[in-house]
Write the structure tokens for this entry.
Amino acid sequence: MTKILMVCLGNICRSPLAEGILRSKLPDDKYIVDSAGTGNYHIGTTPDKRSIAVAKKYGIDISNLKGRQFSVKDFDDFDVIYVMDESNYNNVLSLARNEHDSSKVKLILNDVYPNKNFDVPDPYYGGEQGFENVYNMLNEACTRIADRLV
């Protein structure tokens, strides 16, 4: 069983959306996809209503997900850790205990734009179009990830 973790800042916008998208593209008997945030702002809360809405628009239900904070234990529990931006990348790497932990951490858009280190912008302070744009970015990245894995 391959375990994949999606990480953003608060675990209410980008990472739950990425979790839902990738889950929808992978067989659940072979893959586990989860999400977390580097911050502790939204532990136990559901995703942002705008993330829920854009996911629902594309037939994906993320309304039952609950925010949680990334922890060192996640390096043991997951095979790959996809982060949404450089800040998340640095925050997760700061908790890595060794090179093996560090090697698991990847910027998700590098699957679409290799070695460009582009960020998935945080849509929290914007409108619905920002969530639509983020969905499209994550859908493209998750399609590439799923195609490679399956």
